[in-house]
Amino acid sequence: MSAPDLYPASDAFRQNARVGSREAYDEMYRRSVEDNEGFWAEQADRLDWIEPFDTVKDVSFDADDLHIRWYVGGKLNACYNALDRHVEEGRGDRVAFYFEPDDPKKEERRQITYAEALAETQRMASVLKDLGVQKGDRVTIYMPMIPEAVYAMQACARIGAIFSVIFGGFSPEAIAGRIRDAASDFVITADQGRRGGKTIALKANVDAALKRLGEDSEVRHVLVVRNTGGNVTWDDRDVWYHEATRSASGACPCEPMDAEDPLFILYTSGSTGTPKGVVHTTAGYCVYTSLTHEITFDWREDDVFWCSADVGWITGHSYIAFGPMINGATQVLFEGVPTFPDAGRVWDVVEQYGVTLFYTAPTLIRALMAQGDDFVTRHDRSSLRVLGTVGEPINPEAWRWYHEVVGEGRCPIVDTWWQTETGGHMLTPLPGAIDQKPGAATVPFFGIQPQVLDAEGKVLEGEAEGLLVIADSWPGQARTVYENHERFKNTYFTAYPGTYFTGDGCRRDADGYYWITGRVDDVINVSGHRMGTAEVESALVLHDAVAEAAVVGVPHPIKGQTIYAYVTLAADATPNEDLRAELRQHVRKVIGPIATPEFLQFAIAGLPKTRSGKIMRRILRKVATGEHDSIGDTSTLADPEVVDKLITGRR
Ligand code: 6R9
């Protein structure tokens, strides 16, 4: 019997769901689009405001007058909404976090209430103020997945500092670039992180980054949280957090912020140049992440929510540090890795805390699926209600395994399509309302108006495949690229005027369901992480032996895509295995482990270029994937013979 294509939620689930039928969804969606401002004005009641807003929406996607403003005139504080109000309203005893350490044999499990999280956040905020952090200052956060990472983000929000979290897997070079771009005044880090029984030298990486920046650095202090107790080197600018708290006040008031004051900057890769510092602002982001968290996961107060993303990515911002906390959710915060001590760890954690809503990435599902069902079935998963995925398209096979084996056929799967730039979910089934199809992100969230365009920008109706754009704004949308509005405009609002261009391709089927087909630009998605080809190429050419580099993504059974690099060498360099290893190591050092090219081919005869000197990536992709028969027309190449030589040298 072949597997079904349509998976409706069970009647039992529907009866209790927040949005319990397709009709209910249709009705709410219609209202959200037809009376967009009315809909979003009502949703603003989710937050506590210091001063009400006077204009719900002030938006123009027109490139000449590009601006995106929501809840204009309102004043509020994000941290107040995530912490104080829960305590003030009598929810202080509720668990905010079950902290699950990397290795529970060596470290303590911690249970943290909202009242405790508020106290810790105020302490951190006071310390930051004592160090001189002021409203509008940029604070770089480079932390492991420990509660202090969340306190750091919330503490910045509390005092109006703009935080920029850098994923703990990034290298000193990458940290330096982001500190420079944001002109950060302060850094918060930890001595070391722990992952899978290994330690990560976070403080040492910050030291190396600041050394690299030298005179360029405006960093005044580095605040260091003692986590492992491992050795660190010390400098005048460094401050131990535990020492600073001794003299710090236990209370720290919330700074009243304008609705459109920046909340954070988050760097993400694009097709060209260095990573972009995407800016999210206060009110719209808080409304949007809180609403999507509640509706997409059918969240209730007694749920235990676990988002397995790192706080260094947008998913950890929106669905650990903000959306769920604004809703007062109980969450699991996991420091470790899913395969340590064994491939059953995730389900062990689910069992231990009675996780009801689990949110993860397809790459993790595929990696665990490859380890066999026993690791899953030996743990009790009866607490699970809804399963979520994000980060890349999920292949139907992995979807079905997640549904049948992990969720025992009982839990709806929400395949959420969204981006760093969108702030929160854009396309997703609502569990209970939307029948699921494995691999489809299905339908738009409330207020979201997707369109499919052809390459010329013509809007396609009905069943269609093309480019995905969004025709109107939503409160969670990014407002700009930090200190580079021009780049924001050019990247997202120029090619297809009047719309937000997502960079993704998609197909809309006969039922109106959206299927994301992947990036249409030069962005590679490795294990759900965005990597710009240009970034990897610039890292490669930094090496003396490299004359030129071109990088493409090739399919990978677990990671989704993996990096395949072509390199032409400098005249005095010798193409051998040592150099190959050295170059891969070099990229790892320059950007971080996630950017390491899995394959590296020496393009001895050169790269395939048009007569005007443009590298034809289409050909490089075909060679890399072994599709030599469908390379297509090579007549526009300056030297068509390089193609055969590339095929011979394929890795
Ligand atoms: C949240 C996040 C965004 C890119 C996006 C798309 C891909 C994310 C997806 C998905 C298919 C899904 N993507 N979710 N593709 N189905 N459910 O991942 O943000 O790191 O900025 O990546 O990821 O290609 O454009 P970000």
From TrEMBL:
Record keywords, A-Z: Acetylation, ATP-binding, Ligase, Magnesium, Metal-binding, Nucleotide-binding
Domain AMP-dependent synthetase/ligase: residue ranges: 89-471
Family: Belongs to the ATP-dependent AMP-binding enzyme family.
PTM entry text: Acetylated. Deacetylation by the SIR2-homolog deacetylase activates the enzyme.
Entry GO MF terms: acetate-CoA ligase activity; AMP binding; ATP binding; metal ion binding
SUPFAM superfamilies associated with the record: Acetyl-CoA synthetase-like
Annotated positions of the N6-acetyllysine modification: K614
GO biological process: acetyl-CoA biosynthetic process from acetate
Pfam family for this entry, one: AMP-binding_C
Domain called Acetyl-coenzyme A synthetase N-terminal: residue spans: 25-82
Residues binding CoA, per UniProt: R195, G196, G197, K198, T315, S527, R588
Catalysed reaction, written as an equation: acetate + ATP + CoA = acetyl-CoA + AMP + diphosphate
Domain AMP-binding enzyme C-terminal, first and last residues per copy: 535-614
Function text: Catalyzes the conversion of acetate into acetyl-CoA (AcCoA), an essential intermediate at the junction of anabolic and catabolic pathways. AcsA undergoes a two-step reaction. In the first half reaction, AcsA combines acetate with ATP to form acetyl-adenylate (AcAMP) intermediate. In the second half reaction, it can then transfer the acetyl group from AcAMP to the sulfhydryl group of CoA, forming the product AcCoA.
The protein, known as: Acetyl-coenzyme A synthetase
Gene3D superfamilies named among the record's database cross-references: 3.30.300.30, N-terminal domain of ligase-like
Native species: Rubrivirga marina
Residues bound to Mg(2+): V541, H543, V546
